Amino acid sequence: MSRHAIHLEKAIDELKHLILSLGSDVEESVRLSVQSLDQRKPEQAKEVIAADYAIDQREVYIEEECLKILALHQPVANDLRLIIAILKINNDLERIADLSVNIAKRAVYLSGEAKVDLPFDLQKMAEKVQSMLKRSLDAMVNRDEKLARRVCEDDDEVDAMNREMYVCVEQAIKKDIENLNSYIQLLSASRYLERMADHTTNIAEDVIYLVTGEIIRHGNPA
To answer: Which one, of 92, 83, 100, lies nearest residue 202 by Cα?
Structure first.
């Protein structure tokens, strides 16, 4: 193996380590934000908000490293596909972290309000999204195309949950207008979870691209 090839392999290995580490921290950000909302833990929510700056900085660093490898090594074939996938996954992970912050902000607000009851299990929706995120990252690590495709299929279920939440909130507001703001905050949390699922689906689609070279976005057949 040439010296150039050795340097490229080392750079790619480091890139893999960076994206997996970011993915792990984003998973934790999602878990803590959802928990802070469900268990009314404003201090924990504030920790999620404070930690977001570091995630943003790491996302920028990973992007810079990807661009550096592209410029210095001009990778081709599988190596090129991997770097392109990591660039896109990196961006989706950062957006998921931002959505965690949005949920954490809802948690801070709701912790100071009277608790309202809804006939909707927001925690179940959150667990579904967390499962999708974990499996999409597992699919990336293992280059598991089948697992990635199952993650994509699960997005429809989260979309349906979000629609159900909208109906529940609409009915609740009609009966309890005094707690309008609290219901709206909970609906926002549901919407943020639905958007997390969209970004997680993007990651799964990028895994499929990484493994097969197939682009399945925009309704292209799987």
So the answer is: 92
Assess if residue 9 is contained within a domain.
Answer: yes
Q: Model-level pTM greater than 0.90?
A: yes
Containing domain of residue 47, as a range? 3-212
Which CATH number belongs to the domain containing residue 171 in this structure? 1.20.58.220
Q: Does 206 reside within a domain? A: yes
> Based on the structure, what is the number of domains in the chain?
1
Contact partners, residue 124, CB within 8 Å, separation at least 6: 161
Q: Is the pLDDT of residue 47 over 90?
A: yes
Query: What's the Cα-to-Cα distance from 187 to each of 95, 137, 184, rounded to whole Å?
Result: 19, 27, 5
Q: Does any domain span residue 59?
A: yes
Which of these ranges, 16-20, 71-75, 128-132, 173-177, has the smallest mean pLDDT? 71-75
Residue 218 lies inside a defined structural domain of this protein: no
pLDDT at position 3 is: 82
